Amino acid sequence: EAALLPGGGRMLTTAALAFTPAPQQCQSACRCSSTPPMMMVPGLRWPVPGELGEIVGAAARLPTPAVAVAGSARAAVAAVAVTPAATTAAAASTVTMATTDTLVEEADRLHAAKEVDALFDLLAGADASDDELAWRIARAHHDKAEDLVGDDARKEQLLREGLSIAEDAKERGAGGNGYVLKWYAILLGRLGDFLPTKEKVANSYKIKDSLEASAALLPEDASVQTALGQWCFKVAGISFIERNAAKLLFGKPPQSSYAEALGFLEASYKLRPNKKAALFAGLCQDKLKDRAASHTWFERCLELEGSGEADAELDRQAKAALK
Question: Coiled-coil region(s) at which residues (predicted)?
Fold first, then answer.
């Protein structure tokens, strides 16, 4: 079955095609809800991670017929247009399709495995107007930027692109999505390294508001607690120039303390032991003049397994602090 396109072309749709990761039929882990189980269509294969982002991006540029897929978890986000002139070539090529759910699951798997480059490539061209994809795309930009060494221009570009995606999602009304708020705040905070004092101080209020809203929606999310701890740590150590600028611009500067920062970081580590929380908890204890406690936290940071340049940088800071 194929839907007709303007000009006489045909589009293969999920009404005609279905695929599963198994060679025969859906297994118990399959997310589809079709009955009876969907069978593998000859000539189709399950897309590999590097192809999914391209599939979704290509689909966004194609005219999409109004095809309802009864019982599907989500409407299909990819289809392949076949024009009469290209029918023979298309028949010889492999047709791949992916649902948003599949893309989301693969993105989360790669993020958990800290496969930064594969994750970034996967989501290249994905539909950023889908809020569940938007914050994951923003997260991928953040992770890619964190993993860069010696290329500040590229890092700033990635942070700005990721922030733009998260901000668009937030303005679309996804302010009730804790993950959108979290990555908006984290990216805005990281971008501060590239901003003038006035803009950085102005953003600090937005960062705190978004993180607090995210924490209320995601009370078990360790990274939100870490981000709040980092915000407090930076504000507690704000420079005289920044403090005066905030006072002139906003009446009073943002306020926090190293003790408040430590509370968030300890909460983060309790939810999920992680290098960043351990490192900043050690830095807080150092500021609070508890050298023994700071050493304990730095050692915890080094004991946790890491991967990638971002974790390597945390280890370098912990080792330097122990000297």
Answer: none
